[in-house]
Amino acid sequence: MLKYPFMKAPYTPSISHILGALSIYDLEETVGKKLWKYDPNTQKDRDKIIIYFVLKDLMYLSYRHRFVLMSALKNALDNLNFDFSKEFKNDHDEYKIMAWNETEIIDPRGFFADIYRLAHEVWKDDLHKASVEDPSTW
Fold this sequence. Notes:
Elements: H1 15-18, H2 28-35, H3 43-57, H4 63-78, H5 108-122, H6 124-131
Helix pairs in contact: 3-5, 4-5, 4-6
């Protein structure tokens, strides 16, 4: 059974985990300033945000964890009723402040579709490696 990194609990992928690098609570003056140089609604900037922040931030996960996380994202993308805008909502009780909130992202589903697309380009070899393994052995 796949476990959370550094823990003994079973790993349960969460779509909100994907955007961890875009949560800037108490980092507005550092990470926030870096992110705000980009426009998440233009393709060129969005690709940079995803590659240099989102995917880079997830590299601490093993290739198996990233495969499971992308599989969960695919399931969410396949569900036409999944509300991707909620993933950009700020939650002060959970210390979650997003670089861009749900009112600033024009196409939240498209943002996540781009994450999926770019992850399969950047992590191509790792995702393939995990796909040919038997998950029951993890």
